[in-house]
């Protein structure tokens, strides 16, 4: 393990940041997730996805996986902001849908796991033309693809008291930021610059190789969904809050400086969550776009 300090990696991160600027986790991470998923779709699911994608996507799901982040601050879409995360009680390190899935006003089902249930349900109407008037299935596809990624980010299932790490101010090497932003953006950004030629496709291919070599035995269990449901976000949320307690919050107190030890020990967690997101997104879409659809919860 590399010790804390102003190391070569730390200097390289700062130098590259000053040259190339900031790359958003939201865009790059969600792109990687959807690229992984695209490679695992069945023929039927791939055909349905391409049919539902907006024309500007040019048949590429990864091109629109950041769309929910791009529109969430627009007036028309502000209502979607609570759908990107779910807050849990401080320090309990567990998740419960009935207890936790609500917005700040207490409206039930308004959280990332509730959104996954909702948009997957909408997509199961794909083959029923009588539902065409009720749902925008293109939007449902883009929301579902994005939210399955979000629920795998550990601090999107973080503590209520610190808003998933948003109020925990830290330094990422020399840069002042907050803990949530470290996990949303900076770990992947730094990995791309140091290890992956500043190219998200290079990083994605490395994750895919690890799926074949390192995680192949685990992938069938990642794909499984309990009780024959179309989607099962609750176990993913439980995994995330457990990882938040074990890795994200640990050694990241307010005012701390996070450098090599934190970065190098957390990067494998992030890369595995990206892989799991892609596998589970593909498995969900494969279950949705079959006839007849698998029953919902």
What does this protein structure show overall?
The chain has 297 residues and is mainly alpha-helical. The protein has one domain (8-288): P1 Nuclease, CATH 1.10.575. It contains 12 helices and 3 strands. The longest helix has 29 residues, at 260-288. The protein is globular, with a radius of gyration of 19 Å. The chain starts with 7 loop residues before the first helix and ends in a 9-residue tail after the last helix.
Describe the secondary-structure layout.
Layout: H1 8-20, H2 25-38, H3 43-52, H4 67-71, H5 97-100, H6 112-123, H7 137-150, E1 169-172, E2 175-178, H8 179-195, H9 200-213, H10 219-223, H11 233-248, E3 257-258, H12 260-288
Parallel strand pairs: 1-3
Antiparallel strand pairs: 1-2
Helix pairs in contact: 2-7, 2-8, 2-9, 2-12, 3-12, 6-7, 7-12, 8-12
Question: Summarize this, please?
Answer:
This protein has 297 residues and is mainly alpha-helical. Helices cover 52% and strands 3% of the residues.
Highlighted features:
single chain, 297 residues, mainly alpha, P1 Nuclease, three-stranded mixed sheet, 52% helix, globular
What's the architecture in CATH terms?
Orthogonal Bundle
The spatial strand order of the largest sheet comes to 2-1-3
Poorly predicted tracts of residues? 1-9, 12-25
Tertiary shape: globular
Indicate the structural class: mainly alpha
How many β-strands, per DSSP? 3
* Percent in helix: 40-55%
Tell me the fraction of residues in β-strands, as a range.
Answer: under 5%
- SSE pattern: HHHHHHHEEHHHHEH
Question: Quaternary arrangement of the chains shown?
Answer: single chain
Rg from C-alpha positions? 19 Å
Distance between the termini: 44 Å
Instruction: Let me know the average pLDDT.
Output: 90
């Amino acid at each position: 393990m590399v010790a804390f300090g102003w190391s070569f990696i730390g200097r390289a991160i700062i130098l590259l940041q000053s040259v190339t600027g900031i790359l958003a986790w939201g865009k790059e991470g969600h792109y990687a997730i959807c690229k992984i998923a695209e490679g695992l779709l069945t023929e039927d699911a791939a055909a349905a996805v391409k049919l539902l994608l907006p024309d500007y996507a040019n048949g590429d799901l990864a091109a629109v996986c950041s769309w929910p982040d791009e529109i969430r601050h627009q007036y028309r879409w502000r209502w979607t902001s609570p759908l990107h995360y779910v807050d849990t009680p401080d320090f309990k390190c567990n998740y419960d849908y009935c207890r936790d899935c609500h917005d700040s006003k207490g409206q039930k089902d308004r959280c990332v796991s509730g959104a996954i249930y909702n948009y997957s349900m909408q997509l199961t109407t794909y083959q029923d033309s009588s539902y065409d008037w009720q749902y925008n299935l293109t939007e449902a596809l883009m929301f579902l693809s994005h939210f399955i990624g979000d629920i795998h980010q550990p601090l999107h299932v973080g503590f209520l008291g610190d808003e998933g790490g948003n109020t925990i101010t830290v330094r990422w090497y020399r840069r002042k930021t907050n803990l949530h932003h470290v996990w949303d953006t900076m770990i992947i950004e730094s990995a791309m610059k140091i290890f992956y030629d500043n190219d998200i496709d290079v990083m994605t291919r490395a994750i895919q190789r690890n799926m074949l070599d390192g995680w192949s035995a685990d992938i069938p269990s990642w794909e499984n969904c309990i009780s024959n449901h179309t989607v099962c976000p609750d176990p993913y949320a439980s995994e995330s809050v457990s990882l938040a307690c074990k890795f994200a919050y640990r050694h990241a107190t307010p005012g701390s400086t996070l450098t090599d030890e934190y970065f190098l020990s957390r990067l494998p967690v992030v890369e595995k969550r990206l892989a799991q997101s892609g596998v589970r997104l593909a498995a969900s879409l494969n279950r949705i776009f079959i006839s007849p659809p698998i029953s919902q919860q």
